[in-house]
Structure formats: C-alpha cells, structure tokens
Amino acid sequence: MGNVSLRWRMLIETGGLVALVAAGALWLGVLGTVLAGIVAVVAVVFLSLRITSQFSELTEDVVRMTSIERSHRLDPTGPAELTRLARAVNRLVDRVDETISEDGAERIRLASILDSMREGVVVVDDQGVIESANPASIELLSSLGEVEPGMQLTSLTNHPDVIGVVTRSLESEKTVSSEIELFDNQRTLMAVSTPFPRPESDAARALLLLTDLTDLRRLDTTRREFVSNASHELRTPLAGIRASAETLQRGAIDDPEGRAQFLKMIREDVDRMDALITEMLELSRLESGEASLVFADVEPAKLVDTAVKQFSAIAVDSELKLETKLADDLPLVSVDAEKIDHVFTNLISNAVKWTPAGGTVVVKGWVDDGTVWFSIADSGLGIDPEHLPHIFERFFKTDPARTQPGTGLGLSIARHIVDAHGGVISATSTVGEGSEFAFTVASSNS
C-alpha cells in the first residue's frame, strides 16, 4: 500500500478482514465464518510480520549507519510513519556526518600545523601522562625511541628542569617559564608551561611550549667575543698611537730624526687599524650574505699566477722557493675572481710568514671526481694539534703573544668566501714539517 499512513493502512486492512468474515458468515453460514476467520488470522499474522520486518529492517539500518557504515542511509519507503522516520534519521545522520568530517578536517589541519612547527608542543595531564607531543618536541629533547600519547612525560625527557616547569605550573595554576641547558645535545631551550582545565572535569593539564634558543645564544656569544676581540685588536695600535703622540708632546717633536720615527710608527698603527676595520667589514658582509659575488668562468692557471706574482719578490727576499704545480686537465672554474684571489693571497701570505728561510711554498691544483682542488703547502713551522680545530675562527692566532702582524680574520674570511662558492676548506699540519691548506671550487661544467 506504498507510503499510506500506517494508521489508515491498519484501519483499511482491519475493515477488510471484518468484511471478509461478515461475507463468509452471510454466504456460507458457520463454515464460511470459520473459513473467513482462518483467512483473517493468516492475513493478520502476515501483515504483522510484514510491519515487524519493516521495523526490524529500519532498526538494523539505524544501527548499521551509526556504527560502521556512516555512508549508509535508510530506505525512505514503506508506511508514511516509517518514511518520515527514515528521512528524519537520514537528515540527522547527514548533519552528524558533516560535523564529523569538519571536525576530522580540523584535526588534520591542526595536526599538520603542529607537525610543521619548529617549536616543540607537548600536552601533559596532571598525572604526568602525555596527551600529545609533536615531532619538534621529540627532536628538541633528543628523546630515545617512539613517544606516543598515554606515555609518561619521563619517556620524552628525564631532564629535571623540564619536568619541574610543568609541575610548578600545574601546582601554581600559573604560567611558568625557564631557560634550560640540555647538556646531552648541547641545546638551550626556553620552556613555557601554561595550565588549562579539562572541559569535562576540574582536573588540569599543561601545555608545554619548547623554543630552541641555541642559535640565538650562540650568536650572542659570538657577538660578545667579536666585540671583545675587536676591542683588543684595536686597543694595541691605539696604545701605540697614544704613546707616540705623548712622546712627541714631551719634546721629541723637536728632534727631526725622532719625529720621523714616531710619525712612521703612528702611520703603521693607523694602517693596522685600517686593515682590521676593512677585514671586519668584509667578514660582516660575508657572514650576513650581503657580499655580492660576480661569478665568471676563469682559467685556474690565471688565478694561481695572479696570486703567486704578488709574492714573488717577497719570497726572494725571504729566501723561499715559491712553486706552482697545476694539473694539465684543469677545467674552467666558476668563481668570483677577486674573492678567490683574496683566499689565495691570504693562504700564501701565511705560508710565507711561517716558513723559515730556505723553505718551500707550493701552490697545487688538481681535479678529483669533477671537483677542482687548490692547495697551498709549506715546509714551515707547522701548527700545534690543539690549535688546528680553531684556525678558521675569528681573531684566532696561533701566536698567543700576538707578536706577529695580522688581524686574525684572514682565515675566517677565506672560509666564508669558499663557503659562498659552495666549496670546502680544510687544513692539515705537522709541527716542524709544515702545513697544507686545501679548498674546492666548482668547475664551469658542474
């Protein structure tokens, strides 16, 4: 009877059965009444089973759509009451499914944001159980093994300061922050723990935010060391200028020979300060990436010859042999010729300065696996093993008394120039036998 209302359907069907029994009694008497009654009972059972089946199917569909198959929907056919019920349930499930989909999309978006954050984010309950921890927190704390929700905070870190920040914030119900040194991985972290209540209970949990301050602290340390070293380097020539000026004021200015000597000393100190400031500015530009490099394809032999010619006369005066040994198959290199010349001159200058008379300085060039290598080797005094790891640091000098000329910035500048060319620079040395500095540049074919 299609979508006829169940009330009218039962009324019509009941009326039909009554009519059937009345007709049987009228036409066939007692026998007709009995037969009509049997037929009516069978019809009632059949109709009852049919209605019961429809309700059972509706019930099963509701259970199915609300448990496993959220995409399943009720069949909006049958009696009008069941049709309206099926449609209402379908609309309700559509809204629930839409809400669940939006909630799932929001969770995915939030998880993606947390996973991509450089800051560590950890949610911990008042029992120290982790509710969530993003990958950055695991990396920053150098946690060993997998960390999953439900595990204790101690499985993420056993550092007492980190755990203490969380504990204090939960106990005080206030935001607590602390700068923490992690000696295991040499990191400095800012840990901020903020308590917030659970919506379903009075219990609290804490949001722990971890920010890596390692680079910032290292930069601050480097800045302080830079200022300290620069001040020290500038103080020496300034002291010389002051001493010369005071000597001239006390009467030496009237002595032509003494005056000339002190003016020469002042000029030398001014030149030292000028060289220091120039190299400090150059190093600053290189470190900040502001130094502009003009790349061009250049013959390696031309680079080497230009640098060696600058020291030919000095090598003769110092009684040194200055040689070049370049492979025949060197390809063109893509470099900023002026900047690479700075590298060559600095390394050759150091080799000449630290090689006694009768020694040798050799400039080499070769190709290894498509990479062009240059090296400056000398037979000089060599570098102590304890100094070798620090020679490319700013203001570092192997001469503790700093009696030798130089700013201590040359090798640091050379390293930054090579880095800017995408190459590497290294040093090897044996005390009493000499040193060798090698660096790479890219060929024009690479």
What does this protein look like?
The protein has helices at residues 6-67, 80-116, 135-140, 160-172, 214-249, 256-288, 300-309, 312-317, 337-353, 410-420; strands at residues 120-125, 130-133, 176-182, 187-197, 204-212, 296-298, 321-326, 333-335, 360-368, 371-378, 425-430, 434-441. By secondary structure, the chain is of the alpha+beta class. The protein has four domains: 6-108, no CATH class; 117-212, Beta-Lactamase; 217-288, Signal transduction histidine kinase, dimerisation/phosphotransfer (DHp) domain (Helix Hairpins), CATH 1.10.287; 296-441, Histidine kinase-like ATPase, C-terminal domain (Heat Shock Protein 90, 2-Layer Sandwich). The chain has a five-stranded antiparallel sheet. Strands 7-9-10-12-11 form a five-stranded mixed sheet. Strand 1 (120-125) and strand 2 (130-133) form a beta hairpin. Helix 1 (6-67) packs parallel to helix 2 (80-116), helix 5 (214-249) runs antiparallel to helix 6 and helix 9 (337-353) runs antiparallel to helix 10. 22% of the residues are buried. The model has no long low-confidence stretch (mean pLDDT 78).
Total individual domains: 4
Structural class: alpha+beta
Uncertain residue ranges: none
Backbone shape: elongated
Pfam family, one: PAS_8
Transmembrane segments: 20-47
Subcellular location: Cell membrane; Membrane raft
Protein name: histidine kinase
